[in-house]
Design a protein that fits this description.
Bound molecules: guanosine-5'-triphosphate, iron/sulfur cluster, magnesium ion
Structural class: alpha/beta
Distance between the termini: 40 Å
CATH architecture of the largest domain: 3-Layer(aba) Sandwich
Number of domains: 3
Order of helices and strands: HEHEEHEHEHEHEHEHEHEHHEHEEHEHHH
Oligomer: single chain
Radius of gyration: 25 Å
Largest sheet: 6 strands, mixed
CATH class of the largest domain: Alpha Beta
Length: about 475
């Protein structure tokens, strides 16, 4: 990993490590509670999949992606295809690229990156050896390596490249280029899959498979490159009062709060703000006794209707699910997808995507309640498919809508990859939290504190 990025990553990883492990420790109990009381409704927040704004990102801090392979395999053509410009010289003459060619680029959905096209690893002669030396230097400093093979597949050079990258623990993707001439050798594709090495068949010249390659790059990017957004801190300032509404009933975990509530509380403390926690029944009286108007009211999704009614319109309110959305996924995308619910019609096919296999309850939120509400919206029968765990389809085009679960057992990046796939296939994707807020008729109120996200929802309703 390049030095500056390593330093940033170390810092960020340190910053994010503890909540991540906390989250894992809490999963089993949270899971049961989520499903019992609809807390499995995490709506996810907007945040760009960049760790810095491109214009402000010095080259040394960007994710470096090296393109390696033998001469003439199409490395330069691939770099040009990825950035959509003719930067690197392409020719049928082997050995065209002599020195590494670098290009900074904003690669959606990953953010700011540097692509480095290199000279062929099989270059020969005295000059060739010097070129290979430079390529080796690039190999040592990249954050992700693309190993490009031609239609003949992997030979000893590519195997060596893969081994070197793996030894250095550098994430990699094997790219079988020129798939327009021949499909990659099936045995090699199967072997790579067994070794858990991603491979993608593309034609850089005909621009096929490039989106799948971008998705693979995104999957391989270090977690620390993905921005870790605030929960509530950017909505409040020092001294502000935030009221948290937490239902305490038979389904609540004994003697404790659940993780989203604790994390919100912690972020309020980190913001030097003040918090007050009440049950939904005490909210109205608590608000009436306050001499200071709260900056924000945050409630559990299951009581959102009552809280919306009890909170005066000049006080902003939202749900824990919507705040938690910032940790998982792109809230703008989910909001736009939620807008598509209003355009559902009988006969449409819906995908309910659960990020893990879990024990479904009789009145399961994803399998029973959300489908019921969606059918009410559509005014008739809907075809509902449920896919769990890694079983997220490659082809999403049969679906009019995808409703993703809260994803409490997976990383934010994993959810973002799914959203990217849906977006590039033009399929609206929302999540449980957004879908429930739509069904309760409170989505506009709950998104008021995120004006851009609210606009995304309204655009989704219009289908624009
Ligand atoms: N049919 C086909 N030809 C391709 C494809 N990609 C690249 N080529 C051709 O392969 C040749 C080599 O392409 P380059 O991109 O220059 O290959 P390179 O790996 O950068 O080569 P060196 O710089 O010499 O190492 C050119 O004639 C390209 O047009 C592809 O996907 N399909
Ligand atoms: S990952 Fe999704 S399906 Fe699994 S427990 Fe969490 S919210 Fe439920
Ligand atoms: Mg080249």
């Amino acid at each position: 990993m390049n030095k500056n990025l390593t330093a940033i990553n170390a810092e960020t990883t340190e910053k994010t490590r503890r909540p991540q492990s906390d989250r894992q420790e809490n999963i089993p109990n949270e899971h049961a509670w989520f499903f019992l009381f609809d807390l499995c409704v995490s709506a996810y927040s907007a945040s760009k999949v960049v760790y810095m704004n491109m214009l402000e990102t010095p080259k040394g801090l960007r994710l470096h992606i090296g393109i390696f392979g033998r001469r003439n395999t199409g490395k330069s053509t691939l770099m040009n295809a990825l950035i959509g410009q003719s930067i690197s010289i392409v020719s049928e003459q082997p050995g065209t690229t002599t020195d590494p060619v670098e290009k900074t680029f904003e690669l959606a959905p990953l953010g700011p990156v540097v692509f480095i096209d290199t000279a062929g690893f099989d270059d020969e002669g005295t000059l060739g050896e010097l070129r290979v030396k430079k390529t080796r230097e690039v190999l040592e400093r990249v954050d992700i390596g693309l190993v490009v093979a031609g239609p003949e597949g992997l030979g000893s050079f590519e195997q060596q490249l893969v081994a070197t990258l793996r030894e250095a623990q550098t994430p990699l993707v094997v790219v079988f280029n020129k798939a327009d001439l021949a499909a990659p050798p099936a045995d090699q594709v199967a072997q790579l899959a067994r070794e858990e090495i991603e491979s993608v068949a593309i034609s850089a010249a005909q621009l096929t498979g490039i989106d799948r390659l971008k998705e693979a790059l995104f999957r391989q990017a270090p977690e620390a490159c993905i921005e870790d957004p605030r929960l509530v801190g950017d909505l409040i300032g020092p001294g502000d009062l935030v009221v948290l509404v937490v239902p305490i009933d038979l389904g609540a975990p004994k003697g404790r709060l659940i993780l989203p509530q604790v994390q919100t509380l912690r972020d309020i403390l980190d913001s030097d703000a003040v918090s007050l926690m009440v049950k939904e029944r005490e909210l109205a009286v608590a608000l009436s006794r306050m001499s200071v108007k709260p900056k924000l009211v945050v409630c559990d999704s299951q009581v959102v209707l009552k809280v919306a009614a009890d909170t005066p319109p000049d006080i902003r309110m939202t749900t824990f699910s919507i705040l938690m959305a910032r940790f998982k996924g792109n809230m703008h995308g989910f909001a736009a997808g939620a807008g598509a619910i209003s355009r559902l019609k009988p006969g449409d096919r819906i995908l309910i995507a659960e990020a893990c296999s879990h024990h479904a309850l009789a009145d399961d939120i994803g399998r029973v309640k959300i489908p019921r509400w969606l059918r009410q919206y559509a005014g008739g029968h809907l075809e509902i498919d449920v896919k769990s765990g890694k079983d997220f389809p490659e082809d999403l085009t049969p679906y009019a809508l995808i409703v993703q679960c809260g994803g409490c057992t997976v990383t934010r990046k994993q959810i973002l990859v799914r959203q990217y796939r849906a977006e590039r296939q033009g399929v609206p994707m929302t999540n449980y939290g957004m879908a429930i807020s739509v069904s309760q008729g409170v989505i506009e109120r709950a998104l008021e504190c995120f004006p851009a996200v609210l606009n995304a929802y309204r655009r989704g309703v219009r289908g624009s």
